[in-house]
Design a protein that fits this description.
This protein has 183 residues and is α+β, with helices and mostly antiparallel strands. The protein has one domain: Alpha-Beta Complex (Nucleoside Triphosphate Pyrophosphohydrolase), CATH 3.90.79.10. Helices cover 28% and strands 29% of the residues. The chain has six helices and eight strands; from the N terminus they run H-H-H-E-E-E-E-H-E-E-E-E-H-H. Strands 1, 4, 5, 6 and 7 form a five-stranded mixed β-sheet that branches. Helix 1 packs antiparallel against helix 3. GO terms for molecular function: hydrolase activity. It holds the Pfam family NUDIX. It comes from Algoriphagus sanaruensis. Keywords: Hydrolase. This is NUDIX hydrolase.
Length: 183
């Protein structure tokens, strides 16, 4: 049922961002693959992420990813679980230790198809990342997991200085600033 729900959400998903709109069809087609939610699909597979913001929408929580060495949103592999919203929330809690996580909206916040570089025992492949907007208490203590080097709440106006140019993160940042009605 979750696969069907995801397909329905993807079919309804609209974005004004051209780079994001270009791969919506790829996401819809992937829902038909029996291995779509498993790492064993070596060409690429679904992942889920949490774009975590504070209630006032001034900061986002990012992780310095241990394997990739880059500042990213929290998230991870579905590992066979077809409810990507649950995957995003689980990964966010595991990677941050936060208990104050609150889903802002059950609909998809952002989509990104990106390449993961070749590593020992893992060939280069695509992540079809489905992202959800989640709110958390900026004052709650963070717990760095083994998947991260560091965690940090980063002010929106400092994100570019911290991460450099990452169009996917900048797109989510832009979407957040345009969604102030959700406050």
């Amino acid at each position: 049922m979750d696969r069907i729900h995801l397909k329905n959400q993807l079919e309804l998903y609209r974005t004004p961002y051209e780079e994001e709109a270009e791969f919506i069809v790829d996401f819809i087609e992937l829902t038909q693959d029996p291995l779509a939610f498993k790492r064993e699909r070596l060409e690429g597979h679904f992942t889920a992420s949490a774009w975590i913001v504070n209630k006032k929408r001034t900061h986002t929580l990012l992780t310095l990813h241990r394997k990739l060495g880059r500042w990213l949103q929290l998230g991870g592999h579905a590992d066979g679980h077809e409810n990507l919203l649950e995957v995003a929330l689980k990964e966010a809690q595991e990677e941050s230790g936060l208990t104050s996580l609150k889903l802002v909206d059950e609909t998809i916040f952002d989509l990104d198809k990106h390449i993961i570089p070749d590593r020992p025992h893992v060939p280069e492949h695509f992540h079809f990342d489905v992202r959800y907007l989640i709110e958390a208490d900026i004052n709650e203590p963070l717990k760095v997991s083994e998947e991260s080097i560091s965690l940090a709440w980063i002010a929106f106006d400092s994100v570019v200085d911290m991460i450099g140019y990452n169009p996917s993160i900048l797109r989510m940042l832009d979407k957040t600033s345009k969604s102030e009605i959700l406050l």
